[in-house]
């Protein structure tokens, strides 16, 4: 059996294991290791498993070792720690508090504040699911208590939580950059305009929805004085400062993305202790949560690296490139096919799993068409973002459902999500049609 056929069978086996809910790290590593052993054992034409042991173990351990010792990978625990520390210090929720005070008189203002709070949370944590989980506990119960329709109260937070995928820092951008060997700093900058465009679209959805059906967001009699508004706005300065350090430092060439993460972690700790919102117990909990989340990501990354090496060994990627080249597909048809694949996988798999599974095959194909990998990275992350709220799985939807409980069943949340999905599709089309939306800031930063 030729290596390319083994590669295709292995890829199918991984999909089957993922459908059976086998953890992505174990599925990738196990299939890649066994299939690599099979290839090496038949290298001489005769099945000789003893000859495969040394070559297979060398490939497995060298690739996973090189990945874990990657400098770029060090920013993942730093940004994860930043998110946990900023949450414990009360930094990540200040933007929501400020937006709520300023928008409380606007129809649907609390839902808008929730989306803006999710955007602010995402600008520090970089995790969509963490954003949905945290902001869901804060925003959704309050909107339900105020009489908001459960569809609006839950869907606004579930959709807003996806902003963590695009608005930097994003863990998905970091993993994409490592596996494609593209600049993570450039990817962060490329995600700013698409992320803000998505945020603006969500606010428009809420405004139009409430305008057409006023009863879904009852007005409130609560009044805030001008001094209260100013205090709320000024109270959000730590979150704004951290975001400016990340984006301004990278854009201005002052920091690398890793250095920006380290500086922000130190700043978040100092601000938390100075404002007496963070103590040593909270810091220790943040460190433990960081270790658990980082370990999970590293296991997935290590398994993916082994799988990437296996795919390179089989020659499947060049075979696919040659097949597509012979088919003479246009860029439009190619990108449409890629989008459909990602949207389909997004209905069933988690974003990191989809990315590490598909990139070994997609990147050579995209490069053969001469497409910009920074722009393609934004397109991929946007597609993964859409998958977080796409039925039947929609991880963010299930996170919100677990937070809210019986007050908002899954079907109601998905019913509200449909409007936000429309905006996501429009933004996706704009990003794919006009690459300048993604590349403007990275090109200006050169």
UniProtKB/TrEMBL annotation:
GO terms for molecular function: transmembrane transporter activity. The chain crosses the membrane at residues 29-49, 70-90, 110-131, 152-179, 185-211, 232-251, 295-317, 329-349, 361-380, 386-405, 417-441. Keywords: Cell inner membrane, Cell membrane, Membrane, Transmembrane, Transmembrane helix, Transport. It holds the Pfam family DctM. It is a multi-pass membrane protein. InterPro entries: DctM (IPR010656), TRAP_DctM (IPR004681). It is found in: Cell inner membrane. One of its GO terms (cellular component) is plasma membrane. The keyword Cell membrane applies. Signal peptide: none annotated. Residues 11-437 form the TRAP C4-dicarboxylate transport system permease DctM subunit domain. Part of the tripartite ATP-independent periplasmic (TRAP) transport system. The complex comprises the extracytoplasmic solute receptor protein and the two transmembrane proteins. Belongs to the TRAP transporter large permease family. This is TRAP transporter large permease protein. It comes from Roseobacter insulae.
């Amino acid at each position: 059996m030729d290596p390319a056929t083994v590669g295709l069978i292995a890829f199918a086996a991984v999909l089957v294991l993922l459908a059976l809910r086998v953890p992505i790290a174990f599925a990738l590593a196990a299939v890649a290791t066994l299939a690599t052993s099979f290839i090496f054992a038949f290298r001489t034409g005769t099945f000789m498993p003893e000859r495969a042991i040394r070559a297979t173990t060398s490939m497995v351990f060298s690739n996973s070792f090189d990945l874990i010792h990657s400098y770029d990978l060090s920013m993942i625990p730093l940004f994860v720690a930043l998110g946990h520390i900023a949450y414990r210090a009360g930094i990540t929720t200040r933007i929501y508090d400020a937006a709520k005070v300023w928008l409380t008189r606007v129809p649907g203002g609390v839902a808008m504040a929730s989306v803006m709070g999710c955007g602010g949370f995402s600008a520090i944590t970089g995790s969509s699911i963490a954003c949905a989980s945290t902001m869901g506990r804060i925003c959704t119960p309050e909107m339900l208590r105020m009489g908001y329709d459960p569809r609006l109260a839950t869907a606004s937070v579930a959709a807003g939580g996806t902003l963590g995928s695009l608005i930097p820092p994003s863990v998905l951008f970091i993993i994409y950059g490592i596996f494609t060997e593209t600049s993570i700093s450039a990817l962060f900058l490329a995600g700013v305009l698409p992320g803000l465009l998505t945020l603006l679209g969500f606010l428009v959805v809420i405004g139009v929805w409430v305008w057409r059906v006023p009863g879904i967001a009852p007005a409130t009699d609560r009044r805030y004085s001008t001094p209260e508004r100013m205090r709320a706005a000024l109270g959000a300065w730590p979150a704004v400062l951290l975001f400016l350090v990340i984006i301004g430092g990278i854009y201005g060439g002052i920091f690398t993305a890793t250095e920006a993460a380290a500086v922000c972690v130190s700043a978040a700790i100092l601000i938390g202790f100075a404002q007496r919102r963070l103590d040593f117990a909270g810091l220790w909990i943040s460190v433990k949560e960081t270790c658990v989340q980082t370990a999970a990501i590293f296991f997935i990354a290590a398994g993916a690296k082994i799988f990437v090496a296996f795919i390179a060994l089989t020659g499947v990627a060049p075979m696919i490139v040659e097949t597509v080249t012979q088919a003479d597909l246009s860029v439009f048809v190619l990108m449409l096919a890629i989008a459909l694949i990602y949207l389909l996988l997004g209905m069933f798999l988690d974003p990191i799993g989809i990315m590490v599974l598909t990139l070994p095959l997609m990147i050579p194909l995209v490069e053969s068409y001469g497409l910009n990998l920074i722009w393609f990275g934004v397109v991929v992350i946007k597609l993964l973002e859409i998958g977080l709220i796409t039925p039947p799985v929609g991880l963010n939807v299930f996170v919100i459902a677990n937070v809210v409980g019986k007050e908002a069943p899954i079907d109601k949340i998905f019913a509200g999500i449909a409007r936000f999905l429309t905006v996501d599709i429009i933004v996706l089309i704009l990003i794919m049609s006009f690459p300048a939306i993604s590349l403007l800031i990275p090109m200006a930063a050169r």
